[in-house]
Amino acid sequence: MSRDTSGSPSKKPPLPPGMVLGPDGKPCKICTAFRHWKPPTDNAKQPPSANGTDGPSPSQQKTAAMMAAFASGTGFVQPQSQSQPAAQALAPKPVRPANCPPDVEELGRATWTFLHTTAAYYPEKPTQTQRVNMLSLLRALPVLYPCSVCAQHLGENMKTRPPDVSTRAGLSRWLCEQHNEVNGRLGKETFECTVEKLDERWKDGPSDGSCD
Ligand SMILES: Cc1cc2nc3c(=O)[nH]c(=O)nc-3n(C[C@H](O)[C@H](O)[C@H](O)COP(=O)(O)OP(=O)(O)OC[C@H]3O[C@@H](n4cnc5c(N)ncnc54)[C@H](O)[C@@H]3O)c2cc1C
Predict the structure, then answer these.
(1) Percent with pLDDT over 90 in the chain
(2) Domain residue spans in the chain?
(3) Which residue minimizes the CA distance to atom 53 of ligand 1?
(4) Ligand 1 atom closest to Cα of 153?
(5) For the domain bounded by 104-204, which CATH number is listed?
(6) pLDDT at 161
(7) How confident is the model over 116-132, as pLDDT tens digits?
(8) pLDDT tens-place string over residues 96-116
(9) How far is the CA of 32 from the centre of ligand 1 (A)?
(10) Which of 52, 87, 139, 178 is most deeply buried (CB count within 10 A of its CB)?
């Protein structure tokens, strides 16, 4: 059991599911999906609510409703009165304007889109300058990627499996395998890393012309 500096058992509340800690040991917002993000103060034991019951306070209900809306993915939170039961407070309401900062998922999707698309348009026979620049771009990610936990994993992987910048196919496959490594850790399906599948997804679109 963890203990505080006085030697008594630590009263640290358990981490909410899905919340990711940064290297400083504090909850890392950009490493956490919005649906899992809950500021740490919300976990602390709250005083009884204003109406004298042990039920959630209005601000707790609001937070619960926001979290439910994040979880539902609808982004809609409905107005509520203070007398509504907590279950109704979980009903979805509009919460998340489109111009909110990205979470780990939005940032990830945008980054993968950029990287896979850049690889799909990388030359078949890159010049030395193109190779050097691509290598710099990829090597910068473990240093600069805002999700520090993601960056750390990528950096570890790159040590054992350095980027292949020699050809378009090599780079596309390397990125696909890196992405699959993350998919595996997150329990997602793996992508078939053939040039045909990668080109279809990131360059040409399906042969039925639905993306033309
Ligand atoms: C470098 C990096 C490291 C990351 N590390 C973490 C992490 O440690 N923890 C975490 O929670 N999140 C991490 N992420 C984010 C995570 O990978 C996802 O982007 C995020 O969870 C959103 O997932 P998604 O299901 O929307 O699709 P994404 O995984 O973002 O994929 C977007 C699209 O890419 C296609 N795709 C899927 N797999 C492949 C593949 N192997 N090759 C080519 N195309 C593919 C699919 O069509 C998919 O819809 C990381 C992102 C990056 C860029």
Answers:
(1) 58
(2) 104-204
(3) 108
(4) 8
(5) 1.20.120.310
(6) 98
(7) 999 999 999 999 999 99
(8) 678 999 999 999 999 999 999
(9) 14
(10) 178
